[in-house]
């Protein structure tokens, strides 16, 4: 009996009558079975645990986000058409004279085969005609320290021939590319402002997506350093080799 | 105090113990143990919960539904229930939570304001209650009480919860419990007296007291 609850409103006997009356209500015999069944149904499939619901959902979200990022940086472009579409959209935002080098880098290096273990310089450059040896030497000597050459070749892209040196570090790719200028093709003629001068040589820079391009022109040629380095480091890479490359290209002219 | 602790664990998201409701094989054994523990702690109160739900809702089939839901909710939250606290009060707290939910869904109970007005016009001086009333008549009188008063009378007078526990179960201040109980009891007594008088029982006593 709950004595603290007693007041003058109801006597003990009446409370007992009330309690008995309520307790006389029959309880359905199957109720306990129903309750147990509902709990069993809730317990049996483990799908209700938050780990089994939210973890896969979160994992799926991460995968989707990762796929979206990879697609945006061009890594999930499987077909040639997709790759060309990516290249075209990347080139849109850079000045015309900068496009050839960027185009060749994405085509040959970004979408090309990159060896996991680096070959020796001789093996890497065996496809390169000997007359480009001096250029090769400048590239190997002046490229940023963490980059090693894994390929050097002549390639054709859009009807133009390129001399292409391919280098890689642990996580990044860098290209040094030389191409003969077409008629009236010039940074000066396109009124581009150089981003920096190196020994009196103007260096022109631009970035698009994850790619940075730095370029010089010398006589009948244009030379590019293209990489996925930060803009400043990419320009610095070009500055390091600009004078020597310029001299070599000037000599080709003569 | 124990009841408060139990009810806090139900209302809170803070885990008291590891959540055994996962699909890991190691969790299966823990779930079995927890189920046994739950059965031992919660199942003995099934009949009380059903009877209270029936009186509150006035419908046995709805009461069955609500009680099943109460146990399901309790099972889902049982990993947060702390052993040694008042499981019965915890279950009643869940019951009234479910009942309030169903009230909104099924029908509108009189609000307290209506109840107060009802009381003003019905409360009379205390008179002795005849002893010859049947259980059915007592239950009908109880069922005629406004829901708020009925709930307090059921919790305190029938289920014998302390004022403090009843206040926590109903989520109202303790003073409200006391005033609702007092008014509920008076109203119940009046209802019972009316029934008795309709049979000609107790009129003489009432008249004597009135005189």
Keywords:
heterodimer; A: about 250 residues; alpha+beta; Phosphorylase Kinase, domain 1; seven-stranded antiparallel beta sheet; 8 helices; about 45% helix; about 20% strand; disordered N terminus; B: about 210 residues; mainly alpha; Rna Polymerase Sigma Factor, Chain: A; Arc Repressor Mutant, subunit A; 2 domains; elongated
Summarize the topology:
The complex is a heterodimer of chains A (254) and B (211).
Chain A: H1 12-23, H2 31-43, H3 50-72, H4 80-91, H5 99-110, H6 121-124, H7 133-142, E1 148-157, E2 160-168, E3 173-180, E4 196-198, E5 201-208, E6 211-218, E7 221-227, H8 231-253
Antiparallel strand pairs in A: 1-2, 2-3, 3-7, 4-5, 5-6, 6-7
Helix pairs in contact in A: 4-5, 7-8
Chain B: H1 2-11, H2 25-42, H3 46-57, H4 60-77, H5 87-106, H6 112-122, H7 135-143, H8 147-158, H9 163-170, H10 174-198, H11 203-210
Please explain how this structure is put together.
The complex is a heterodimer of chains A (254) and B (211). Chain A is an alpha+beta fold. Chain A has a domain at 96-253: Phosphorylase Kinase, domain 1, CATH 3.30.200. Helix content of chain A is 43%, strand content 21%. Chain A is built from eight helices and seven strands, in the order αααααααβββββββα. Chain A has helices spanning 12-23, 31-43, 50-72, 80-91, 99-110, 121-124, 133-142, 231-253; strands spanning 148-157, 160-168, 173-180, 196-198, 201-208, 211-218, 221-227. In chain A, strands 1-2-3-7-6-5-4 form a seven-stranded antiparallel β-sheet, with helices on both faces. The longest helix of chain A has 23 residues, at 50-72. Chain A is rod-shaped. The relative contact order of chain A is 0.11. The model of chain A is unreliable at 1-8 (pLDDT under 50). Chain B contains eleven helices and no strands. In chain B, 72% of the residues lie in helices and 0% in strands. The radius of gyration of chain B is 20 Å and the shape is elongated. Chain B has two domains: 2-106, RNA polymerase sigma factor, region 2, helix turn helix motif (Rna Polymerase Sigma Factor, Chain: A, Orthogonal Bundle), CATH 1.10.1740.10; 112-210, Arc Repressor Mutant, subunit A (Orthogonal Bundle), CATH 1.10.10.10. Chain B is mainly α and 211 residues long. Classes of the chains: A alpha+beta (254), B mainly alpha (211). Chains A and B meet through helix 1, helix 2 and helix 3 of A and helix 2, helix 3, helix 4, helix 7 and helix 8 of B.
